[in-house]
Amino acid sequence: MGEPSGVGPEVAVAAYNTMGGRVGAHALRLVGDVDTFLAYGAPKHAIDPIEAKVVRRAGVADPANGQAIIAAIDYAVRAALGGNAAAVVTAPIHKASLIAGGFAFPGHTEYLAHLTGAPRAVMMLAGGGLRVVPLTIHVPLSTVPALVTRASILETGRIVLTSLVRDFGIAHPRLAIAGLNPHAGESGALGAEEGDIIAPAADILRAEGHRVVGPLPPDTMFHTEARARYDAALCMYHDQALIPLKTLDFWEGVNVTLGLPIVRTSPDHGTALDIAGTGKADPRSMIAAVQMAAEMADARAR
């Protein structure tokens, strides 16, 4: 369900109806508040209800709805962990509202890692023939250099490479690693992180038998010919990864959580409170998220 006052329930119902309640061999279920889903035209038989109720005012996120939002996530994750669901697709949550209501996690990714016992979850964005992973996510840009460590690059790179095999069916995945500084440091003239941290981490991954290139100059990694040379790009910070992805495929980008024992995807947009309830919400990213979740689940089952 996600934030009931945002566009999440609307695009979830639109995806369900557009896809006829199925994706491949999988039946679709809507998890959350019954009245919220019914208001957007959901068939009642498709809804798995939660006990917590919501007060829905389109466009106004209410911290009092936090219990219901979390209950829907918990229900879906339990179903996936128990083998009763092939994947979980989450609608956007309003993080500030949830945190104001006592939610102790920065967002979905961290909470899903907590629920599933995963040591570390990694965010991937996919769309437009591109897969990108930001090494650091929702942190101020001034703190990024200190967070770019050899250990974090190795851990994240291994999770990405494992997922490309397990979830995307790529037998011999290719990972491109971006530099942090302009021109990937220009041989140290524009920064030392590439030579001191990123290149040694890439060397270790290659020594483990992985197909890894980098650190590469970030400004030349994302044109058509460059993208054909790798299956995923590990970037050093949020906007370095998300700007090319959203430029290439703003409306059908998908957020994928790697490193979990379950499959989880979500649309690559927020709650869009400004257009909630107006009928203007575009369901294409949600539809793409559902389709990708089914493909990943099928890849794991092979």
How would you sum up this structure, described in words?
This protein is α/β, with parallel strands linked by helices and 302 residues long. It folds into two domains: 176 residues, Isopropylmalate Dehydrogenase; 120 residues, Isopropylmalate Dehydrogenase, CATH 3.40.718. α7 crosses α8. The chain has eleven helices and twelve strands. It has an eight-stranded mixed β-sheet with strand order 5-12-11-6-7-10-8-9, with helices on both faces. It has a two-stranded antiparallel ribbon with strand order 1-2. The model has no long low-confidence stretch (mean pLDDT 95). It is globular and about 60 Å long.
Briefly characterize the structure.
The chain has 302 residues and is an alpha/beta fold.
Q: What does the secondary structure layout of this molecule look like, with pairings?
A:
Layout: H1 8-18, E1 22-23, E2 26-27, E3 30-32, H2 34-39, E4 47-49, H3 66-81, E5 88-89, H4 95-100, H5 108-116, E6 122-127, E7 130-134, H6 144-147, H7 150-166, E8 174-178, H8 193-207, E9 211-216, H9 224-227, E10 232-235, H10 238-248, E11 254-258, E12 264-267, H11 284-301
Parallel strand pairs: 3-4, 5-12, 7-10, 8-9, 8-10
Antiparallel strand pairs: 1-2, 6-7, 6-11, 11-12
